Amino acid sequence: MIKSKRIKRMTAISMLTVLLALTGCTSENTGGTNGESGVQGGQSNEKSPITLQLTSDNALFTATIASGEQSDPVMKEIQKKTGVTLKLDTQTDDKKFNAMLAGGDLPDILVLQNSQKYLTQLIEGNQVIPMDDLLEKYGGNLLKESPQKIKNSRQFFSNGTGKLYAIPGIASQLVPQFKYASPAYNIRWDYYKELNYPPVNNMDDFLNLLAEMQKKHPVNEQGQKVYGMAPLFDWGLVPYELFDRFFNRINRNNMFVYLEPETFMPGGGILDPNVAYWQGTAFYRKANQLGVLDPDSFTQKYDNFTEKVKSNRVLFSQWQWAGPADANVELAKKNPTSGWMPMPMPQGQTVYAGEFGSNGFSNRLFMISKNCKYPERAMELISYLQSVEGSRLILNGIQGENWDVLDGKPQWKKETIDAQKNDPSFQLNTGIGLYWNLAGFVDGYQDPEYNVPFNYTLNVDFWKTQMTELDKDYSQHYGVAYPGELVEKRVEAGEIGLLYYDMDNELGMDQNMPDDIKRIETNVTDYLIRMAPKLIYAKTDEEYAGLQESMMEELRKMDAEKAVDYWMDTLKKAAETFASTREL
Question: What is the pTM of this model?
Protein backbone atom coordinates (compact mmCIF):
# COMPACT_ATOMS: atom_id res chain seq x y z
CA MET A 1 0.00 0.00 0.00
CA ILE A 2 1.02 3.61 -0.37
CA LYS A 3 3.15 4.72 2.55
CA SER A 4 4.52 8.15 1.70
CA LYS A 5 3.50 10.98 4.02
CA ARG A 6 1.58 12.75 1.27
CA ILE A 7 -0.42 9.64 0.48
CA LYS A 8 -1.09 8.94 4.15
CA ARG A 9 -2.52 12.40 4.53
CA MET A 10 -4.87 12.31 1.60
CA THR A 11 -6.51 9.76 -0.54
CA ALA A 12 -8.17 9.78 -4.53
CA ILE A 13 -11.15 9.33 -6.18
CA SER A 14 -11.24 6.99 -8.90
CA MET A 15 -14.41 7.98 -9.99
CA LEU A 16 -15.82 7.01 -13.28
CA THR A 17 -17.71 9.58 -15.19
CA VAL A 18 -21.25 8.44 -14.85
CA LEU A 19 -24.09 10.86 -15.85
CA LEU A 20 -27.36 10.96 -13.85
CA ALA A 21 -30.67 12.85 -13.53
CA LEU A 22 -33.43 13.68 -11.11
CA THR A 23 -36.39 16.02 -10.64
CA GLY A 24 -39.57 16.37 -8.57
CA CYS A 25 -42.25 18.77 -7.46
CA THR A 26 -44.14 18.75 -4.12
CA SER A 27 -44.37 16.92 -0.81
CA GLU A 28 -46.88 14.12 -0.50
CA ASN A 29 -48.15 13.08 2.92
CA THR A 30 -48.90 9.38 2.69
CA GLY A 31 -49.98 8.72 6.21
CA GLY A 32 -49.70 11.59 8.66
CA THR A 33 -48.21 14.97 9.45
CA ASN A 34 -46.12 14.35 12.54
CA GLY A 35 -42.77 16.11 12.23
CA GLU A 36 -41.45 16.10 15.78
CA SER A 37 -38.60 13.64 16.27
CA GLY A 38 -35.47 13.00 14.21
CA VAL A 39 -33.38 10.16 12.85
CA GLN A 40 -30.37 9.99 15.15
CA GLY A 41 -27.81 7.29 15.90
CA GLY A 42 -29.19 4.93 13.28
CA GLN A 43 -32.63 4.62 14.94
CA SER A 44 -35.59 3.91 12.69
CA ASN A 45 -38.04 6.78 12.26
CA GLU A 46 -41.38 5.86 13.89
CA LYS A 47 -43.30 8.84 12.51
CA SER A 48 -45.93 8.75 9.83
CA PRO A 49 -44.44 8.07 6.39
CA ILE A 50 -44.22 10.88 3.86
CA THR A 51 -42.93 11.26 0.31
CA LEU A 52 -40.42 13.94 -0.66
CA GLN A 53 -39.39 14.80 -4.18
CA LEU A 54 -35.80 15.48 -5.13
CA THR A 55 -34.40 17.15 -8.22
CA SER A 56 -31.20 18.55 -9.67
CA ASP A 57 -30.35 21.23 -12.20
CA ASN A 58 -28.80 18.64 -14.51
CA ALA A 59 -28.07 14.94 -14.95
CA LEU A 60 -27.35 13.32 -11.60
CA PHE A 61 -28.47 9.69 -11.87
CA THR A 62 -27.80 7.14 -14.60
CA ALA A 63 -30.35 7.06 -17.37
CA THR A 64 -31.16 3.45 -16.47
CA ILE A 65 -32.90 4.56 -13.26
CA ALA A 66 -36.61 5.00 -13.93
CA SER A 67 -38.34 8.12 -12.64
CA GLY A 68 -40.49 7.96 -9.54
CA GLU A 69 -40.19 5.96 -6.33
CA GLN A 70 -37.37 3.41 -6.21
CA SER A 71 -37.96 -0.15 -5.00
CA ASP A 72 -34.44 -1.56 -4.59
CA PRO A 73 -33.28 -2.77 -1.15
CA VAL A 74 -31.00 0.22 -0.45
CA MET A 75 -33.73 2.78 -1.09
CA LYS A 76 -36.20 0.73 0.95
CA GLU A 77 -33.70 0.71 3.83
CA ILE A 78 -33.40 4.51 3.58
CA GLN A 79 -37.20 4.66 3.77
CA LYS A 80 -37.15 2.38 6.80
CA LYS A 81 -34.53 4.48 8.58
CA THR A 82 -36.09 7.88 7.86
CA GLY A 83 -39.78 7.32 7.22
CA VAL A 84 -39.30 9.18 3.93
CA THR A 85 -39.96 7.81 0.47
CA LEU A 86 -37.85 9.61 -2.13
CA LYS A 87 -39.44 10.32 -5.48
CA LEU A 88 -36.95 10.99 -8.27
CA ASP A 89 -37.44 12.45 -11.72
CA THR A 90 -34.43 11.09 -13.56
CA GLN A 91 -34.98 13.10 -16.74
CA THR A 92 -33.85 16.46 -15.41
CA ASP A 93 -31.86 18.82 -17.58
CA ASP A 94 -30.90 22.48 -17.43
CA LYS A 95 -33.87 23.56 -19.54
CA LYS A 96 -36.38 21.76 -17.32
CA PHE A 97 -34.77 23.12 -14.15
CA ASN A 98 -34.90 26.67 -15.52
CA ALA A 99 -38.60 26.27 -16.22
CA MET A 100 -39.26 25.06 -12.67
CA LEU A 101 -37.14 27.87 -11.27
CA ALA A 102 -38.92 30.53 -13.31
CA GLY A 103 -42.32 29.20 -12.26
CA GLY A 104 -41.39 28.84 -8.60
CA ASP A 105 -42.23 25.17 -8.98
CA LEU A 106 -39.18 23.57 -7.39
CA PRO A 107 -39.68 20.34 -5.40
CA ASP A 108 -38.77 19.61 -1.81
CA ILE A 109 -35.03 18.93 -2.03
CA LEU A 110 -32.50 20.17 -4.59
CA VAL A 111 -29.06 18.82 -5.37
CA LEU A 112 -27.48 21.84 -7.02
CA GLN A 113 -24.63 21.07 -9.40
CA ASN A 114 -23.99 24.39 -11.11
CA SER A 115 -23.63 26.50 -7.99
CA GLN A 116 -21.83 29.24 -9.89
CA LYS A 117 -24.85 29.68 -12.16
CA TYR A 118 -27.77 29.23 -9.78
CA LEU A 119 -26.71 29.74 -6.16
CA THR A 120 -27.24 33.51 -6.03
CA GLN A 121 -30.53 33.28 -7.90
CA LEU A 122 -31.89 30.62 -5.57
CA ILE A 123 -30.93 32.47 -2.40
CA GLU A 124 -31.85 36.01 -3.46
CA GLY A 125 -35.10 34.76 -4.98
CA ASN A 126 -36.02 33.03 -1.71
CA GLN A 127 -36.42 29.76 -3.60
CA VAL A 128 -34.53 27.85 -0.89
CA ILE A 129 -34.63 28.20 2.89
CA PRO A 130 -31.83 28.65 5.43
CA MET A 131 -31.30 25.49 7.45
CA ASP A 132 -29.61 26.88 10.57
CA ASP A 133 -32.49 26.29 13.01
CA LEU A 134 -33.41 22.99 11.36
CA LEU A 135 -29.81 21.82 11.68
CA GLU A 136 -29.79 22.35 15.45
CA LYS A 137 -32.96 20.29 15.93
CA TYR A 138 -32.83 17.71 13.17
CA GLY A 139 -29.27 17.58 11.84
CA GLY A 140 -27.35 15.90 14.64
CA ASN A 141 -25.37 13.68 12.29
CA LEU A 142 -24.13 16.67 10.33
CA LEU A 143 -23.24 18.66 13.43
CA LYS A 144 -21.24 15.77 14.86
CA GLU A 145 -19.65 14.30 11.71
CA SER A 146 -19.28 17.22 9.27
CA PRO A 147 -18.57 20.46 11.15
CA GLN A 148 -16.12 21.68 8.48
CA LYS A 149 -18.70 21.19 5.73
CA ILE A 150 -21.11 23.43 7.66
CA LYS A 151 -18.44 26.03 8.32
CA ASN A 152 -17.40 26.06 4.65
CA SER A 153 -21.01 26.31 3.49
CA ARG A 154 -21.78 29.34 5.63
CA GLN A 155 -18.65 31.04 4.38
CA PHE A 156 -18.69 30.10 0.71
CA PHE A 157 -22.20 28.94 -0.28
CA SER A 158 -24.43 31.49 1.48
CA ASN A 159 -24.25 34.37 -1.02
CA GLY A 160 -22.53 36.43 1.66
CA THR A 161 -25.29 35.97 4.26
CA GLY A 162 -23.37 33.65 6.55
CA LYS A 163 -26.40 31.38 6.78
CA LEU A 164 -26.60 27.67 6.03
CA TYR A 165 -28.38 27.17 2.71
CA ALA A 166 -26.51 24.12 1.42
CA ILE A 167 -24.81 20.91 2.53
CA PRO A 168 -21.94 19.83 0.21
CA GLY A 169 -22.05 16.09 -0.52
CA ILE A 170 -19.71 13.32 -1.75
CA ALA A 171 -16.64 14.16 0.33
CA SER A 172 -13.67 11.93 -0.48
CA GLN A 173 -9.93 11.55 -0.07
CA LEU A 174 -6.96 10.05 -1.85
CA VAL A 175 -6.86 6.26 -1.76
CA PRO A 176 -4.88 3.47 -3.45
CA GLN A 177 -6.32 2.39 -6.79
CA PHE A 178 -6.57 -1.04 -8.34
CA LYS A 179 -4.91 -0.01 -11.59
CA TYR A 180 -4.20 3.76 -11.92
CA ALA A 181 -5.30 3.57 -15.54
CA SER A 182 -7.01 6.92 -16.17
CA PRO A 183 -4.98 8.79 -17.23
CA ALA A 184 -2.07 6.50 -18.01
CA TYR A 185 0.01 5.04 -20.83
CA ASN A 186 -2.57 2.38 -21.64
CA ILE A 187 -1.18 0.09 -24.35
CA ARG A 188 -1.61 -3.46 -25.58
CA TRP A 189 0.13 -5.51 -22.89
CA ASP A 190 0.51 -8.56 -25.13
CA TYR A 191 2.25 -6.44 -27.78
CA TYR A 192 4.54 -4.92 -25.14
CA LYS A 193 5.33 -8.40 -23.86
CA GLU A 194 6.01 -9.52 -27.44
CA LEU A 195 8.73 -6.86 -27.66
CA ASN A 196 10.25 -8.12 -24.36
CA TYR A 197 9.13 -5.15 -22.24
CA PRO A 198 11.48 -2.48 -23.63
CA PRO A 199 12.27 0.30 -21.12
CA VAL A 200 10.58 3.65 -21.73
CA ASN A 201 12.53 6.50 -20.17
CA ASN A 202 10.98 9.51 -21.92
CA MET A 203 8.36 10.57 -24.44
CA ASP A 204 10.62 9.84 -27.42
CA ASP A 205 11.04 6.27 -26.17
CA PHE A 206 7.28 5.99 -25.93
CA LEU A 207 6.80 7.12 -29.53
CA ASN A 208 9.43 4.64 -30.68
CA LEU A 209 7.65 1.89 -28.74
CA LEU A 210 4.38 2.68 -30.53
CA ALA A 211 6.21 2.71 -33.84
CA GLU A 212 7.63 -0.77 -33.14
CA MET A 213 4.22 -2.11 -32.17
CA GLN A 214 2.69 -0.60 -35.29
CA LYS A 215 5.43 -2.13 -37.41
CA LYS A 216 4.69 -5.60 -36.02
CA HIS A 217 0.93 -5.13 -36.27
CA PRO A 218 0.34 -2.87 -39.28
CA VAL A 219 -3.27 -3.94 -39.83
CA ASN A 220 -6.03 -5.46 -37.69
CA GLU A 221 -7.94 -8.68 -38.28
CA GLN A 222 -10.09 -6.97 -40.92
CA GLY A 223 -7.07 -5.61 -42.78
CA GLN A 224 -7.62 -2.01 -41.55
CA LYS A 225 -4.62 0.25 -40.96
CA VAL A 226 -3.33 0.41 -37.36
CA TYR A 227 -1.92 3.63 -35.86
CA GLY A 228 -0.01 4.20 -32.64
CA MET A 229 -2.33 6.97 -31.45
CA ALA A 230 -5.46 8.87 -32.42
CA PRO A 231 -5.84 11.83 -30.01
CA LEU A 232 -9.32 13.24 -29.49
CA PHE A 233 -8.63 16.69 -30.90
CA ASP A 234 -12.42 17.07 -31.16
CA TRP A 235 -12.27 17.63 -27.39
CA GLY A 236 -10.45 20.94 -27.80
CA LEU A 237 -7.44 21.26 -25.52
CA VAL A 238 -8.01 17.98 -23.63
CA PRO A 239 -5.32 16.04 -25.59
CA TYR A 240 -2.69 18.33 -24.09
CA GLU A 241 -3.72 17.82 -20.44
CA LEU A 242 -1.50 14.77 -20.05
CA PHE A 243 1.56 17.01 -20.51
CA ASP A 244 0.66 18.64 -17.22
CA ARG A 245 -0.56 15.54 -15.41
CA PHE A 246 2.40 13.38 -16.39
CA PHE A 247 4.87 16.14 -15.49
CA ASN A 248 3.88 17.13 -11.94
CA ARG A 249 1.48 19.93 -12.84
CA ILE A 250 -2.29 20.19 -12.37
CA ASN A 251 -4.11 21.44 -15.43
CA ARG A 252 -6.69 24.17 -14.89
CA ASN A 253 -8.41 26.87 -16.96
CA ASN A 254 -7.83 25.82 -20.57
CA MET A 255 -4.03 25.93 -20.43
CA PHE A 256 -3.89 29.51 -19.20
CA VAL A 257 -2.04 28.40 -16.07
CA TYR A 258 -1.26 25.20 -14.22
CA LEU A 259 -1.17 24.53 -10.47
CA GLU A 260 1.72 23.25 -8.42
CA PRO A 261 1.09 20.00 -6.51
CA GLU A 262 -0.07 20.11 -2.87
CA THR A 263 -0.01 23.93 -2.50
CA PHE A 264 -2.11 24.50 -5.68
CA MET A 265 -0.25 27.73 -6.32
CA PRO A 266 -0.43 28.81 -10.00
CA GLY A 267 2.43 28.81 -12.47
CA GLY A 268 3.20 28.79 -16.17
CA GLY A 269 0.79 30.47 -18.56
CA ILE A 270 0.09 30.06 -22.25
CA LEU A 271 2.83 32.56 -23.12
CA ASP A 272 5.39 30.24 -21.51
CA PRO A 273 6.85 28.01 -24.30
CA ASN A 274 7.39 25.15 -21.84
CA VAL A 275 3.78 24.50 -20.86
CA ALA A 276 1.43 21.69 -21.88
CA TYR A 277 0.02 23.12 -25.11
CA TRP A 278 3.43 23.69 -26.65
CA GLN A 279 4.89 20.45 -25.30
CA GLY A 280 1.84 18.60 -26.57
CA THR A 281 1.86 20.00 -30.09
CA ALA A 282 5.58 19.25 -30.34
CA PHE A 283 4.95 15.67 -29.17
CA TYR A 284 2.12 15.06 -31.62
CA ARG A 285 4.26 16.56 -34.39
CA LYS A 286 6.95 13.93 -33.67
CA ALA A 287 4.25 11.27 -33.66
CA ASN A 288 3.11 12.42 -37.09
CA GLN A 289 6.67 12.40 -38.44
CA LEU A 290 7.08 8.81 -37.19
CA GLY A 291 3.86 7.81 -38.92
CA VAL A 292 2.08 6.77 -35.70
CA LEU A 293 -0.48 9.61 -35.66
CA ASP A 294 -3.84 8.65 -37.16
CA PRO A 295 -4.69 11.21 -39.89
CA ASP A 296 -8.34 11.06 -38.80
CA SER A 297 -7.44 12.49 -35.37
CA PHE A 298 -8.69 16.00 -36.15
CA THR A 299 -12.06 14.90 -37.52
CA GLN A 300 -13.03 11.82 -35.48
CA LYS A 301 -15.51 11.84 -32.61
CA TYR A 302 -15.35 9.97 -29.30
CA ASP A 303 -17.38 7.05 -30.63
CA ASN A 304 -15.00 6.73 -33.59
CA PHE A 305 -12.03 6.60 -31.25
CA THR A 306 -13.45 3.99 -28.88
CA GLU A 307 -14.47 1.84 -31.83
CA LYS A 308 -10.89 2.00 -33.12
CA VAL A 309 -9.62 0.82 -29.74
CA LYS A 310 -12.09 -2.06 -29.65
CA SER A 311 -11.31 -3.09 -33.24
CA ASN A 312 -7.50 -3.03 -32.71
CA ARG A 313 -6.87 0.00 -34.92
CA VAL A 314 -5.07 2.15 -32.33
CA LEU A 315 -2.36 1.29 -29.79
CA PHE A 316 -2.61 3.98 -27.09
CA SER A 317 -5.42 5.42 -24.98
CA GLN A 318 -4.82 7.69 -22.02
CA TRP A 319 -8.07 6.53 -20.35
CA GLN A 320 -9.04 2.98 -19.51
CA TRP A 321 -12.73 3.91 -19.82
CA ALA A 322 -12.26 5.19 -23.39
CA GLY A 323 -12.17 1.81 -25.11
CA PRO A 324 -9.59 -0.38 -23.33
CA ALA A 325 -11.97 -1.74 -20.66
CA ASP A 326 -14.50 -2.85 -23.28
CA ALA A 327 -11.77 -4.14 -25.60
CA ASN A 328 -10.33 -6.31 -22.82
CA VAL A 329 -13.62 -8.16 -22.39
CA GLU A 330 -13.61 -9.23 -26.04
CA LEU A 331 -9.86 -9.91 -26.26
CA ALA A 332 -9.99 -12.16 -23.20
CA LYS A 333 -12.40 -14.48 -25.01
CA LYS A 334 -9.64 -15.27 -27.53
CA ASN A 335 -6.62 -15.05 -25.24
CA PRO A 336 -6.97 -14.41 -21.46
CA THR A 337 -3.59 -12.66 -21.22
CA SER A 338 -4.09 -10.32 -24.18
CA GLY A 339 -5.44 -6.82 -23.73
CA TRP A 340 -4.77 -3.31 -22.50
CA MET A 341 -2.82 -2.37 -19.36
CA PRO A 342 -1.07 0.80 -18.13
CA MET A 343 2.60 0.78 -19.08
CA PRO A 344 4.92 1.68 -16.16
CA MET A 345 5.35 5.44 -15.96
CA PRO A 346 8.82 6.68 -17.04
CA GLN A 347 11.03 7.57 -14.09
CA GLY A 348 10.58 11.15 -12.89
CA GLN A 349 7.04 11.50 -14.24
CA THR A 350 3.83 11.63 -12.19
CA VAL A 351 0.71 9.54 -11.94
CA TYR A 352 -2.45 11.65 -11.78
CA ALA A 353 -4.77 10.09 -9.18
CA GLY A 354 -7.72 12.39 -9.85
CA GLU A 355 -9.80 15.00 -8.07
CA PHE A 356 -11.72 14.80 -4.83
CA GLY A 357 -13.36 17.15 -2.37
CA SER A 358 -12.22 16.45 1.16
CA ASN A 359 -15.16 18.46 2.48
CA GLY A 360 -17.62 17.76 -0.31
CA PHE A 361 -18.15 19.28 -3.72
CA SER A 362 -19.62 22.62 -4.74
CA ASN A 363 -21.46 20.69 -7.47
CA ARG A 364 -23.34 18.51 -4.97
CA LEU A 365 -25.12 21.07 -2.79
CA PHE A 366 -28.17 19.73 -0.91
CA MET A 367 -30.78 22.45 -0.41
CA ILE A 368 -34.38 22.60 0.84
CA SER A 369 -36.94 24.35 -1.34
CA LYS A 370 -39.32 26.97 0.07
CA ASN A 371 -42.11 24.75 -1.32
CA CYS A 372 -41.26 21.88 1.01
CA LYS A 373 -44.20 21.24 3.40
CA TYR A 374 -42.05 19.19 5.76
CA PRO A 375 -38.67 20.95 6.00
CA GLU A 376 -37.84 19.23 9.31
CA ARG A 377 -38.26 15.83 7.66
CA ALA A 378 -36.20 16.98 4.68
CA MET A 379 -33.46 18.06 7.09
CA GLU A 380 -33.56 14.65 8.79
CA LEU A 381 -33.33 12.89 5.44
CA ILE A 382 -30.40 15.01 4.25
CA SER A 383 -28.66 14.47 7.59
CA TYR A 384 -29.07 10.70 7.24
CA LEU A 385 -27.92 10.55 3.61
CA GLN A 386 -24.88 12.66 4.50
CA SER A 387 -24.07 10.66 7.61
CA VAL A 388 -21.49 7.95 8.20
CA GLU A 389 -24.24 5.35 8.50
CA GLY A 390 -26.10 6.56 5.42
CA SER A 391 -22.95 6.63 3.33
CA ARG A 392 -22.10 3.06 4.34
CA LEU A 393 -25.56 1.96 3.26
CA ILE A 394 -25.49 3.79 -0.07
CA LEU A 395 -22.05 2.51 -1.06
CA ASN A 396 -22.11 -1.02 0.38
CA GLY A 397 -25.70 -2.05 0.98
CA ILE A 398 -27.25 -3.44 4.14
CA GLN A 399 -25.06 -4.71 6.97
CA GLY A 400 -25.69 -8.39 7.63
CA GLU A 401 -27.14 -8.90 4.17
CA ASN A 402 -24.56 -7.40 1.79
CA TRP A 403 -21.58 -6.86 4.06
CA ASP A 404 -20.43 -7.59 7.58
CA VAL A 405 -17.49 -7.03 9.92
CA LEU A 406 -14.85 -9.77 10.00
CA ASP A 407 -11.73 -9.49 12.16
CA GLY A 408 -12.61 -5.88 12.87
CA LYS A 409 -12.86 -4.87 9.20
CA PRO A 410 -16.00 -4.41 7.08
CA GLN A 411 -16.11 -6.70 4.05
CA TRP A 412 -18.59 -7.49 1.32
CA LYS A 413 -20.09 -10.95 1.61
CA LYS A 414 -19.14 -13.55 -0.96
CA GLU A 415 -22.69 -13.57 -2.33
CA THR A 416 -22.49 -9.81 -2.88
CA ILE A 417 -19.09 -10.07 -4.59
CA ASP A 418 -20.35 -12.86 -6.83
CA ALA A 419 -23.47 -10.89 -7.74
CA GLN A 420 -21.42 -7.79 -8.49
CA LYS A 421 -19.17 -9.83 -10.76
CA ASN A 422 -21.85 -11.81 -12.58
CA ASP A 423 -25.04 -9.72 -12.60
CA PRO A 424 -24.98 -6.97 -15.27
CA SER A 425 -27.91 -5.30 -13.43
CA PHE A 426 -26.26 -5.55 -10.01
CA GLN A 427 -26.69 -1.87 -9.08
CA LEU A 428 -30.31 -1.70 -10.20
CA ASN A 429 -31.21 -4.93 -8.41
CA THR A 430 -29.43 -4.18 -5.14
CA GLY A 431 -29.18 -0.39 -5.08
CA ILE A 432 -25.55 -0.72 -3.98
CA GLY A 433 -23.59 2.24 -5.36
CA LEU A 434 -26.58 3.39 -7.40
CA TYR A 435 -27.18 6.54 -5.35
CA TRP A 436 -23.57 7.48 -4.62
CA ASN A 437 -24.39 11.07 -5.59
CA LEU A 438 -26.60 11.29 -2.49
CA ALA A 439 -23.95 10.12 -0.01
CA GLY A 440 -22.06 12.39 2.32
CA PHE A 441 -18.83 10.40 2.09
CA VAL A 442 -17.71 8.33 -0.88
CA ASP A 443 -14.90 6.11 -2.14
CA GLY A 444 -11.66 6.92 -0.36
CA TYR A 445 -12.97 8.92 2.59
CA GLN A 446 -11.92 7.09 5.73
CA ASP A 447 -14.71 5.44 7.71
CA PRO A 448 -13.96 6.71 11.25
CA GLU A 449 -15.14 3.51 12.94
CA TYR A 450 -13.14 1.03 10.86
CA ASN A 451 -10.33 3.24 9.49
CA VAL A 452 -10.84 1.99 5.92
CA PRO A 453 -12.28 3.73 2.84
CA PHE A 454 -16.08 4.07 2.90
CA ASN A 455 -16.23 2.03 -0.29
CA TYR A 456 -15.43 -1.37 1.19
CA THR A 457 -14.27 -2.70 -2.17
CA LEU A 458 -11.20 -0.45 -2.14
CA ASN A 459 -8.87 -3.01 -0.63
CA VAL A 460 -6.49 -5.74 -1.73
CA ASP A 461 -8.71 -8.62 -0.60
CA PHE A 462 -11.57 -7.46 -2.81
CA TRP A 463 -9.31 -6.65 -5.75
CA LYS A 464 -7.90 -10.18 -5.70
CA THR A 465 -11.42 -11.47 -6.36
CA GLN A 466 -11.64 -9.23 -9.43
CA MET A 467 -8.27 -10.09 -10.99
CA THR A 468 -8.45 -11.24 -14.60
CA GLU A 469 -5.81 -13.49 -16.12
CA LEU A 470 -4.41 -10.36 -17.76
CA ASP A 471 -4.18 -8.58 -14.39
CA LYS A 472 -2.46 -11.63 -12.90
CA ASP A 473 0.02 -11.88 -15.77
CA TYR A 474 0.88 -8.17 -15.42
CA SER A 475 1.19 -8.38 -11.62
CA GLN A 476 3.31 -11.52 -11.73
CA HIS A 477 5.74 -9.92 -14.15
CA TYR A 478 6.28 -6.94 -11.84
CA GLY A 479 6.13 -8.90 -8.59
CA VAL A 480 3.10 -7.15 -7.11
CA ALA A 481 -0.19 -8.34 -5.62
CA TYR A 482 -2.36 -6.21 -7.94
CA PRO A 483 -1.56 -3.81 -10.82
CA GLY A 484 -1.82 -0.59 -8.82
CA GLU A 485 0.73 -1.78 -6.29
CA LEU A 486 3.42 -1.24 -8.92
CA VAL A 487 2.61 2.48 -8.87
CA GLU A 488 2.55 2.59 -5.07
CA LYS A 489 5.91 0.85 -4.70
CA ARG A 490 7.53 3.14 -7.25
CA VAL A 491 6.07 6.24 -5.57
CA GLU A 492 7.40 5.03 -2.22
CA ALA A 493 10.82 4.43 -3.79
CA GLY A 494 10.85 7.97 -5.22
CA GLU A 495 10.98 6.78 -8.84
CA ILE A 496 7.73 8.52 -9.82
CA GLY A 497 5.35 10.98 -8.18
CA LEU A 498 1.66 10.99 -7.34
CA LEU A 499 -0.50 13.96 -8.21
CA TYR A 500 -4.02 14.85 -7.06
CA TYR A 501 -6.33 17.84 -6.80
CA ASP A 502 -8.51 18.69 -3.80
CA MET A 503 -11.61 20.53 -4.97
CA ASP A 504 -11.65 22.42 -1.67
CA ASN A 505 -9.23 24.68 -3.51
CA GLU A 506 -12.25 25.93 -5.51
CA LEU A 507 -13.75 27.47 -2.37
CA GLY A 508 -11.67 30.61 -2.74
CA MET A 509 -12.21 30.95 -6.49
CA ASP A 510 -13.64 34.11 -8.00
CA GLN A 511 -17.21 33.10 -8.87
CA ASN A 512 -17.78 36.15 -11.08
CA MET A 513 -15.24 36.09 -13.87
CA PRO A 514 -15.22 39.49 -15.63
CA ASP A 515 -16.78 39.54 -19.09
CA ASP A 516 -13.59 40.77 -20.72
CA ILE A 517 -11.66 37.78 -19.31
CA LYS A 518 -14.36 35.41 -20.55
CA ARG A 519 -14.10 36.95 -24.01
CA ILE A 520 -10.31 36.69 -24.04
CA GLU A 521 -10.46 33.07 -22.89
CA THR A 522 -12.93 32.14 -25.61
CA ASN A 523 -10.93 33.86 -28.34
CA VAL A 524 -7.60 32.43 -27.19
CA THR A 525 -8.95 28.91 -26.78
CA ASP A 526 -10.52 28.95 -30.24
CA TYR A 527 -7.26 30.26 -31.67
CA LEU A 528 -5.13 27.58 -30.00
CA ILE A 529 -7.44 24.83 -31.24
CA ARG A 530 -7.49 26.26 -34.77
CA MET A 531 -3.70 26.59 -34.95
CA ALA A 532 -2.86 23.16 -33.46
CA PRO A 533 -3.00 21.27 -36.79
CA LYS A 534 -0.56 23.72 -38.38
CA LEU A 535 1.93 23.17 -35.54
CA ILE A 536 1.50 19.39 -35.60
CA TYR A 537 1.88 19.15 -39.38
CA ALA A 538 4.88 21.52 -39.53
CA LYS A 539 7.47 19.88 -41.80
CA THR A 540 10.58 21.21 -40.06
CA ASP A 541 11.69 22.40 -36.63
CA GLU A 542 12.19 25.83 -38.13
CA GLU A 543 8.62 25.94 -39.40
CA TYR A 544 7.28 24.93 -35.99
CA ALA A 545 9.44 27.55 -34.22
CA GLY A 546 8.31 30.23 -36.65
CA LEU A 547 4.66 29.37 -36.12
CA GLN A 548 5.12 29.40 -32.36
CA GLU A 549 6.77 32.83 -32.47
CA SER A 550 4.04 34.33 -34.64
CA MET A 551 1.36 32.77 -32.41
CA MET A 552 2.94 34.29 -29.31
CA GLU A 553 2.70 37.71 -30.96
CA GLU A 554 -0.93 37.10 -31.88
CA LEU A 555 -1.73 35.89 -28.36
CA ARG A 556 -0.34 39.11 -26.92
CA LYS A 557 -2.50 41.11 -29.33
CA MET A 558 -5.49 39.10 -28.06
CA ASP A 559 -4.66 40.19 -24.47
CA ALA A 560 -3.78 36.63 -23.40
CA GLU A 561 -1.36 38.11 -20.88
CA LYS A 562 -4.27 39.88 -19.18
CA ALA A 563 -6.11 36.57 -18.79
CA VAL A 564 -2.95 34.89 -17.48
CA ASP A 565 -2.48 37.67 -14.91
CA TYR A 566 -6.12 37.36 -13.86
CA TRP A 567 -5.78 33.61 -13.30
CA MET A 568 -2.46 33.98 -11.51
CA ASP A 569 -4.03 36.41 -9.06
CA THR A 570 -7.31 34.51 -8.68
CA LEU A 571 -5.70 31.11 -8.18
CA LYS A 572 -3.10 32.49 -5.77
CA LYS A 573 -5.94 33.78 -3.59
CA ALA A 574 -7.75 30.45 -3.94
CA ALA A 575 -4.63 28.57 -2.81
CA GLU A 576 -4.25 30.89 0.17
CA THR A 577 -7.90 30.33 1.10
CA PHE A 578 -7.41 26.58 0.76
CA ALA A 579 -4.43 26.72 3.11
CA SER A 580 -6.42 28.76 5.64
CA THR A 581 -9.27 26.21 5.73
CA ARG A 582 -6.71 23.57 6.71
CA GLU A 583 -5.74 25.68 9.70
CA LEU A 584 -9.28 25.97 11.08
Answer: 0.83
